[in-house]
Amino acid sequence: MNGPATRLIQSGTRRSPIRWRMDEAGWTALPAALRQEPELEFLGLWGEAERVHAAFRHAGGGPPLLATADAAGGRYAALSPARPAAGLFERMAADLWGLRAEGAADSRPWLDHGFWPRHAPLGRNPKPPLGELPQPAFLPAGGEGVHQIPLGPVHGGVTEPGHFRFHVRGETILRLEARLGYAHKGILGLMRGKSPKLAARLAARISGDSTVAHAWAFAAAAEAATGVAPPPRAILLRGVMAELERIANHLNDAGFLCDAAGFAWPHARCGALREVVLRAADSAFGHRLMMDRVVPGGVSIDIAPSGPDAILAALAAVVAELPPLRRAIDGHAGLQDRLAGSGALAPALAAGFAAGGFVGRASGRDFDARRDLPYAPYDRLGFTVPLRQAGDVAARLQVRLDEMAESLAMVAALLARLEPGETLLPLPARPGEGLGLVEGFRGEVMCWMALDEQGLIRAVFPRDPSWLHWPLLEAAVQGGAMADFPLCERSFNASCSGVDL
Amino acid sequence: MLLPRLARTLFRRPLTDPAPATYPEIVAALVERLDAMARGRLGRSLAIRHVGAASCNGCELEINALSGVVHDLERFGLRFVASPRHADVLLVTGPCGRNMNEALLRTHAAMPDPKWVVAVGDCAVDGGVFQGSDAVEPGGVGRLLPVDLLIPGCPPSPTLLLEGLLALLEAEVTAAPPPPPLRPVEPTMESWAEPRRDGPVPEDGPG
Ligand code: SF4
């Protein structure tokens, strides 16, 4: 089943169970080989000083596959001609490490807006600042009567900063381009040289709404790098937290989505339920969003003695409310009229970009890391992965509501299995590398980490699923009405902070 | 289908939390600040504009929760507005990433005086965990804008946020005497009937 690209990667020297180091010629041949093996999904690309890494995975199954090559002279062959999803990563690698992707279709700056004290701050030789950049050039849209609408980085509501540039004709969106980087805070640079234990606080703040998922992926990478298996109780508690996070976020976004369509009642109800869930999380784990609770080696805090009951009470409230909420949403003709058909994402695009989470599963991409790359505690839980084909806003909402029902059952099952025991093990200070992959509410969060001789972080890259969602949002709104954009944006809810790093 | 559910809520205990208490010391400090700056009175209502200056979006989640039924910000006369031109309060979250500086300063400049700046979250207060990064303004929002109130926490809970915002309202109300009226006071019905002794009757009412 191995295609030419897989064989090419695996012909390099094996540096870890999942990573191969390719020579320059091998990497240069990679784009052509990738074209011949479309089922090898692209997951991400990142750099190191004069080195480039890319992650792939077979659509059919199996663990991720990492390829590394030297970027001699700061140059490497671009993968974006073969995998368009690599485009944003290549622009990011240029800004952070000064690595140039040769043959890339797009080499405009991405994260660096010209305000940093140094360009390529993570490269071997940081360069002088870019200085004031000219007004950003946006991809054009031709034709008569076309005009542009700039939106952001400060939006009407309480949201993250991002700029959207629309080319519209009348009410129709001809092209949308998102320009991000406004939430960049230099997370990768701060993580470098720290111990995993210290850097975990940063990992928890890559995207606040996915704090548990990011902290877990980071912890899993650190544990894989040091060969530590976290205690069983900690694993169960991680599962509880991750599912609570999923429920809270699905509730939040379902509410906001209905509100964006002008239907306020579900928003009010979902908001109230979300508050119930967060308060239960607070009483069980001492933090509403459960930040800094998942740490390398286990969990930093055991569940409070009254925690399980508080969580079960909150779940009961959601379980009781969910069916009437769904009936109201499904039965409201005006709402369905707005949701059905808008922001449709073609299954081929979702598959081509390896869209994770509800975005992929609403467009027929049947992948859930909890089931397809099983990790504890999900390997011993029965659950179904909802799937839809339509790919529109309605389908994404349905997938999320279905998922929520599954998560509610999972939390109860996980709590029932809790046995007394340890919750945290120390990590030895030793070199190694590891990969963590955890299904967050948006999709799979992947984190790769390499530790140096003292057990400090030499290189790290946390990949939020939003990396692959942003270009898909741009594609999904194309041809739609401008008035539907808030709906589409909400139904993707891609993270700015998660990709701005 | 929806109507029975809506009707039921009429008879249910409201979901809204009681208002949190404000700390007299914080209010006093704010009043002092207000006096020192001789700002005009905004009244018992504040319009709020939020700017996420490279936050991790955790703070935004909690700020958004304020508008929900549980915290119901609007019952206090506090509301979020879409335009800085309508805003009295700038809520800043995040460690002030350099890429957001310009947007942040422009938003602040677009707000009419008098205005408050509130730093929300540990990041905005002093950079939080992002201290030491090249990509953020060292020292939090205070380095860029005059900050009136700090609400620490990572993220601060909605209750804590509410406490802070209510303290602003309290300060507005208890602060300096009301500003002098901009136009002559309109005569009341009685004053028309009885010629006033304490001064001349204004000549023109508003036609
Ligand atoms: S204070 Fe904490 S929650 Fe708020 S933006 Fe900063 S890291 Fe995120």
UniProtKB/TrEMBL annotation, chain B:
Residues 56-168 form the NADH:ubiquinone oxidoreductase-like 20kDa subunit domain. Keywords: 4Fe-4S, Cell membrane, Iron, Iron-sulfur, Membrane, Metal-binding. InterPro entries: Complex_I_20kDa-like, NADH_UbQ_OxRdtase-like_20kDa. Residues 175-207 are annotated as: Disordered. Coiled coil: none annotated. Belongs to the complex I 20 kDa subunit family. This is Hydrogenase. It comes from Teichococcus rhizosphaerae.
